[in-house]
Amino acid sequence: MIEVKNISKGFNGREILKDISLQFDKGKANLVIGGSGSGKTVLMKCMVGLLEVDQGEIIYDGKNFSSLDFKERKPFRQEIGMLFQGGALFDSLTVEQNIMFPLSMFTEMSLQEKKDRVNFCLQRVNLVNVNQLMPSEISGGMKKRVAIARAIAPNPKYLFCDEPNSGLDPRTSIVIDNLIKEITEEYDITTIVNTHDMNSVIEIGDKIIFLFQGKKEWEGTAQDILKSDHPELNDFIFASKLAKALKKQS
């Protein structure tokens, strides 16, 4: 479980996150939604230590992550998997080398152990015979699956996904959603997903948090969201034709 307690963050006198308190549950797909500029990406960067909060605390399983220095945070970073928007694979490395990268950085595995782990993770995301391919030689959906394999390679306790379906067609998006959901439940990971995709919200959202202008405005389940009368939330979800159709059916 990850707890965010009364955190605020600003840049150049402009407050982006405003006294936010949240709880992200273990073994659940915790989805953070909101329009551009709502603070989703800043929140995620603060949670993984890429940005420092101005005030408040970030608690990993009872331990205050935000109070630690760079060296003290290393054991926590070893337990974090990150799926970046666009996949963010290293173009100059093969698929195998990309997945092996966090293993070389954070573990003392032998080369054979790392290769075995790479093959296991590739099988888990339903990819075969791609080890020696370069990122330029595979499709966008395959890149996202390779990025998921890299994120889970160190066997993380916490998985962060920033817009995992960005740039993907609807069918491939469903594949990625299902993989994230399955991996979360199978390995009992605390998963946090930033997304604009209402299909993801409806299909895999165990817990949904809506940010608006840097504040937490709403929290609930996929079932709750379709019955919400929150004006800003409804403005956001009704931008999706899927959500509008589901609302009529509920």
Walkthrough of the structure:
By secondary structure, this protein is of the alpha/beta class. It has one domain (25-36, 80-249): Rossmann fold, CATH 3.40.50.300. It has 10 helices and 10 strands. It has helices at residues 40-48, 74-77, 95-106, 111-124, 140-152, 170-187, 198-204, 222-225, 231-237, 241-249, and strands at 2-11, 14-24, 29-33, 55-60, 63-64, 80-83, 158-162, 190-194, 207-212, 215-220. The strands form 2 sheets. Strands 6-7-8-3-9-10 form a 6-stranded mixed beta sheet. Strands 2-1-4-5 form a 4-stranded antiparallel beta sheet, with helices on one face. The radius of gyration is 18 Å and the shape is globular. The mean pLDDT is 89.
Chain-wise SSE layout:
Layout: E1 2-11, E2 14-24, E3 29-33, H1 40-48, E4 55-60, E5 63-64, H2 74-77, E6 80-83, H3 95-106, H4 111-124, H5 140-152, E7 158-162, H6 170-187, E8 190-194, H7 198-204, E9 207-212, E10 215-220, H8 222-225, H9 231-237, H10 241-249
Parallel strand pairs: 3-8, 3-9, 6-7, 7-8
Antiparallel strand pairs: 1-2, 1-4, 4-5, 9-10
Helix pairs in contact: 3-4, 3-5, 4-5, 5-6, 6-7
